[in-house]
Amino acid sequence: MVEATVVKVAITGHTSGIGLAIADAFRARAHEIVGLSRSTGYDLSGDRQKVVEAAAKCDVFVNNRHQYNDDTQLQLLFAVAEAWNGQDKTIINLGSRAGECYILGRPDPYSVYKHALDAACQQFFDRQDQRPRVVNIRPGWVDTDSVKGTEVPKLSPRDVANVVLWAIDQPPHVYVASVTLAHHVTHTPAKRRSRPSRIVKSWLGGLRSLRRTMAGR
């Protein structure tokens, strides 16, 4: 989809963070924003059909808002895609690099849901009829309220919004299925002494025990 064809953009979670930055970026191009959040009368998890009906009148649906520890974002992706089946429209899905870390050795629902979104977006890309097109934007750390106090290099919400606009600006024959982005580290961090893993420690302990046994023979 090219810029000139974008008329109406529906965005979940448009009042703060990444959603607000995306809304502002589209407004700067004089496009109409349909904000979908509790502040505008939309309960994303409680009344999904109302959200789908509002998105039906739009050209682009930005599936941004993640409800922690539930699958609302995933269900909205499927619901809007079904309603738009066969139409030349675009769904921008806000995923996360956290989807790569779903096997952590500890419970982490957020990464599991984001991994599920990655898989769902791949399914849409693999369809015979790729309409609507589904673009999965997968940022790493982004400077939002939810990660304040976490000392890591972060993207700004505007950085993510710029990538969304880039994806929208591609000509109709170019299908951008997924974009992964992160803050570019331009310095070499100080080297830290690596700690041996539990497996290595166990192996070394076994080796020492074997040596003591052999020495006693």
Written account of the structure:
- The protein is an alpha/beta fold.
- Helices cover 36% and strands 14% of the residues.
- The protein has a six-stranded parallel sheet, sandwiched between helices.
- Helix 1 (17-27) links the parallel strand 1 and strand 2.
- Helix 1 (17-27) crosses helix 5 (157-168) and helix 2 packs across helix 3.
- It is globular.
- The model is unreliable at 202-214 (pLDDT under 50).
Q: Which architecture does the CATH hierarchy give at level 2?
A: 3-Layer(aba) Sandwich
Percent helix among the residues? Answer: 25-40%
CATH fold description: Rossmann fold
- Sequence of secondary-structure elements: EHEHEHEHEHEH
Spatial order of strands in the largest sheet: 2-1-3-4-5-6
Number of domains: 1
Classify the secondary structure makeup into a structural class: alpha/beta
Biggest β-sheet description: 6 strands, parallel
Task: Return the CATH class.
Answer: Alpha Beta
- Count of runs of 4 or more consecutive helical residues: 6
The end-to-end span amounts to 77 Å
Q: Calculate the mean pLDDT score and round it.
A: 86
Radius of gyration, taken over Cα atoms and rounded to an integer in Å: 22 Å
Overall 3D shape: globular
Low-confidence parts: 202-214
Total strands: the figure is 6
- What amount of the residues lies in strands? 5-15%
